[in-house]
Amino acid sequence: MPSFNLGAPINTALLLYILYAVQRILFPPASAKAKSIPTEFKHGYSWMPKAHPPTVLFTTYTPKTLAPFNGKDGGRILLAIDGTVFDVTAGRNFYGPNGMYGNFAGRDASRGMAKQSFDEEMLTPIDQPLDKCDDLTPEEIENMKGWYDHFANKYIICGKLVENDAI
Ligand code: HEM
């Protein structure tokens, strides 16, 4: 039976190479670290992002805490439909300050979605209790649910909307 002989030059060479390869993986030289995200293998062997990718935390909002997310500062844009908060930042063209539906940004858009109107009077003032929408017709509720499904398919659900004094 052949035995492993460390004294044989080929084994010594292989062992040295393995030790070298392992230390390259454990302690990669600065030159092996890609400065940008590699798109091909040769751009870097051990690439790590500088920071963890941004995460979205499911958050409980009130009308008052939701209001600042109106995109006017160039930041995130959130809106609520039927108690669910959507991150619609990707739809800045629609909901940004110059967007056709900019009124909904940072607000509870339920009534506007139900009644197919982006008029100011569709919005409940942020210091008032939540709009119960209990005067809406079944068709209007259906319309709102249709929009809800559209948003759920397109945007990220990032929280729920509760009364101002609930948290
Ligand atoms: C003058 C009448 C209107 C025109 C010409 C219009 C036009 C449009 C267009 C072109 C889109 C983009 C569709 C797409 O690319 O997916 C859109 C989306 C939308 N519209 Fe209208 N719209 C009108 C009225 C309204 C009204 C009254 C509402 C009130 C609720 C409304 C709410 C929306 C919403 C919520 C979206 C989806 C945006 C998104 O996907 O984030 N639209 N509209």
From TrEMBL:
<dbReference type="GO" id="GO:0020037">
    <property type="term" value="F:heme binding"/>
</dbReference>
<dbReference type="GO" id="GO:0005783">
    <property type="term" value="C:endoplasmic reticulum"/>
</dbReference>
<comment type="similarity">
    <text>Belongs to the cytochrome b5 family. MAPR subfamily.</text>
</comment>
<keyword id="KW-0256">Endoplasmic reticulum</keyword>
<dbReference type="InterPro" id="IPR050577">
    <property type="entry name" value="MAPR/NEUFC/NENF-like"/>
</dbReference>
<protein>
    <submittedName>
        <fullName>Cytochrome b5</fullName>
    </submittedName>
</protein>
<dbReference type="InterPro" id="IPR001199">
    <property type="entry name" value="Cyt_B5-like_heme/steroid-bd"/>
</dbReference>
<dbReference type="InterPro" id="IPR036400">
    <property type="entry name" value="Cyt_B5-like_heme/steroid_sf"/>
</dbReference>
<dbReference type="GO" id="GO:0046872">
    <property type="term" value="F:metal ion binding"/>
</dbReference>
<feature type="domain" description="Cytochrome b5 heme-binding">
    <location>
        <begin position="61"/>
        <end position="162"/>
    </location>
</feature>
<dbReference type="GO" id="GO:0016020">
    <property type="term" value="C:membrane"/>
</dbReference>
<feature type="signal peptide">
    <location>
        <begin position="1"/>
        <end position="34"/>
    </location>
</feature>
<keyword id="KW-0732">Signal</keyword>
<keyword id="KW-0479">Metal-binding</keyword>
<keyword id="KW-0349">Heme</keyword>
<keyword id="KW-0408">Iron</keyword>
<dbReference type="Pfam" id="PF00173">
    <property type="entry name" value="Cyt-b5"/>
</dbReference>
